[in-house]
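Record 1 of the preview.
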Amino acid sequence: MTLALSSELAMPTPTAPQAYSPGLEGIIAGESAICQVDPNAGLVYRGYDVHDLAARSTFEDVAWLLLHGQLPTAAESEAFRQSLAAASPLPDPIKQALALFPKNMHSIDALRTGVSMLAPFDPQLDDNSHAANIAKSMRLIARVSSIITAAQRVRTGQEPLIALGENLPHPARFFFTLTGREPQAWQSTAMNTIFTLYAEHDFNASTFSARVTASTLADIYAAVTSAIGTLKGPLHGGANEAAIHVLEEVATPDRADAWVADRLARHEKIMGFGHRVYRTGDSRVPVMRNLLKQLGDQLHQPHWHANAGALEAAVLKQKGLYANVDLYAAPVLHLLGIPAELNTSIFAAARIAGWCAHVTEQHDHNRLIRPRSLYTGPAPRKLQ
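->
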C-alpha cells in the first residue's frame, strides 16, 4: 500500500536558520536582578561586590540578600540564623531512607534523592507564590546541609548530628554536624568564605537548569533537584572534586610545567581551569587563593598553595587559561579535613541560596523557557 500525504499534512518549507551559538555561549537567555558576572573578573550579588561580602558578611546575610534583595538588619540576620537551625531536622522517613542508601552512593546522588524526597513533606509544596517560595527556600537551605552531613555520617557508620550546634552560624553548623567537632574560629571563617563565594553565579548550568524546570511552574523542589543533577557533572560542580587529585599528581611546584605539557600533549582537560564567561580570570580566585595561603601556613602545609600557584602559572603560560575557583577551593576543603568526595555537595550547600533566589524570581516573572534547535537531520522526504 502506498501512503500519500494530504496537502494539510505536507511538510513545511524549511526556514532560514537563526543565529546559533553552541552551548548557548554568549546568548542572553533571560533577565535577573540577582547576580552580575563581569567577563573582566567581576562578581556582584544584588549590587554588592563578592569580595566585600566574603570579607565582611555572614553567609546568612548573603543568603538573605539573594532572597530578599537587601542585606538584613541585625535582628533579621539573627532571626534568619535561628530559623535555619530550627528547620534543620529532617522528616523521620528521610532519615530512615538514608540508612538504606548503598554505602558507595556518591554524596551528590544522596543529596539529589534526599531533596526530591523532601518535597511531599513541605505543606506549601504546590504554592509558587513569592511568600511561599521564600519560606520554602529557608527550609531548603537548612535541610540541604542536613542531608549532606547526615548521609555522610550514616555512610561512614556514625550517628547523624543534625540537632547540634544550634547557636552556630550556618556554615559552622555544617562543619560541626559533619565532623562532630565544634569548629575553631579559623575553621568557621573558612567555611563562611567558601559558602559565600559559592552562593551564586548568574545563569550557570545548574541555575539555568533550575530556571528551566521552574518555568514549567514545577515546584521549587523539582527545580532544585534538576539543579543538583546538573551540578554533578565534571564540567560544572564535579570539577572541584577532580582539582584536588590534579594537585596531588603534580606533587611539587617544580613538576608543574612538565605535568601540564604532558596533559596538553595528550589533549586532556585540566580540571580547575577555564570559564565560559570570565576572560581575565575568575573573580573568586584571589579570595580563595589567599585563604589557602593562610590555612597552609597555619597548618604547616604550605605546599598546597605553592603547588596550586605553580600549576596556575604553567597552565596560563602553556594554554592561556586562567584558574577558576575550584583549583583553590579543593585544597582549602582538604585542609579543613573534608573528604574530596563531599566537595560537590558542599558547593550545593552554598549554591542552594542562589538556586532558590532564581526559582523565586522565575516564578515571579515567569515565561516558559523553550528554545529552538538547529535541525541537522535529513531533508523533507515522503513516506512511500
